[in-house]
Amino acid sequence: MTATARADSFLTANPHALGLILQASETRTIIASRDIFDISGIKLWARDQPVSRALQRKLLDRQLRNPLETCLMAEGGVTPASLVDATEALLASGTPLAGLLRPHAARLIIEAKNLPLQPVVQLLLSVGQTARPESFDHAVQAMALAGEMMITHGGTTADVRLAMLGGLLHDIGEMYIDPRFGESDADWSLDFVSYQQLVVHPHVGHLLLTQLTQYPAALARGVAEHHERLDGSGYPHALRRDALSSLGRLLAVAEAALNTLRHDPGNLARASVALRVVPGEFDMDWVTEVAKAATIQGPPEDGLDLVVVQLRLERLDDALRRAQDHATALESRSEPGTLRETLELAQFLIGRLRAGWFASGLWSSAAVTSQDAAEVEAIEDELFFRLRAIERAALLRAGELPEVDAASLSVLCEALRASGI
Questions:
Q1: DSSP result, 138-169
Q2: Contact 283, 334 (CB under 8 A)
Q3: Which backbone phi and psi does 241 adopt, to 5 degrees?
Q4: 236 prior amide bond cis, ω within 30
Q5: Are 235 and 252 in contact (CB under 8 A)?
Q6: Is 298 exposed, middle or buried (CB count within 10 Å of its CB: 0-12, 13-18, 19+)?
Q7: What is the DSSP letter of 236?
Q8: Domains in the chain, please, with CATH?
Q9: Does the reported pTM lie above 0.85?
Q10: How does pLDDT run across 85-110, given as a tens digit for each residue?
Q11: Alpha carbons within 13 A on the beta-carbon side of 231
């Protein structure tokens, strides 16, 4: 399934989603909620018949009368009651995220209990809970964080529930892409075709919610936008400011914060830095709560000593400078066209990183004190990560270039990878 998927995309069973359904069916009962027919009217599977591997053979290269997802049901699957259980378990954990959520625990539990789970969503969440438990935990965390942010901002009950549904379903499109290209295991040296696989899931989620559910359009739009950025550096459509909905902006902040906590679970300071390190990237109205929680938590106790901090600052400053020099040199030698536009984008994004770097006030190693160690470490980690993300953005913008232009772009990509070593 590609980013240009048609309206009838779900009339052929997606092999990756089907694989997860079959995997889940080994430990959870999934049955046909109606007879399954192919487009010519041939009955492939009977109502109430449990799903098994035989279904995969029946569906091979068959176009269906109705999308497979609308024909299946998970018995004893995810329900509002089980979402409440998962939310309570999250709140009872000793994680920094739980501390951020706890002031609104009672409201979050009430709203989780009242979330409307339409049949297709209930099926896919149940499959994910069984076949990809870490992804389901991430969905619950995003649900709770998005709800907390909306509650803090004085949202109505409808606003809070929409935000929580957005958090719960934001990555539902990941079930439809090759698991080799999932976000948590992303290889930043992937080529253009592989990057297309990685970044298509917001679009797939939008299609699924639009075509297979009756949820409001605002929910599908927010899911489509959860990896977009206000400065146009996000994906899949590189939208900017006014093109992004309020829910999309909220989900972008929630996803970025949780993605950081995936790699550094105890460090809200790093999550706060990730949201603030590039000016104008995220909507600061939604960033505030994470930043406040990070301040309350304070820096980790095992910070770096001053000498190491100063060495890392010098290394980071050099990496940013060399990356921009490479982009500038290549752009000056390129002809008008896609390659030049790609290099201009890379220069713009690197320039935004350097602006954030200078705004941090930590670029002068001589002025840094030992109290800055935790902030320096968080900024360094995040900026090196962003250099690799610029490689991704450049590859996506470039697409499939002529051989000579592709070779020129590879020079920049190699420089960006070397900058993060």
A1: HHHHHHHHHHHHHHHTT--HHHHHHHHHHHHH
A2: no
A3: 10, -90
A4: yes
A5: no
A6: exposed
A7: S
A8: 80-297 (1.10.3210.10), 306-419 (1.20.120)
A9: no
A10: 999 999 999 888 998 899 999 999 99
A11: 19
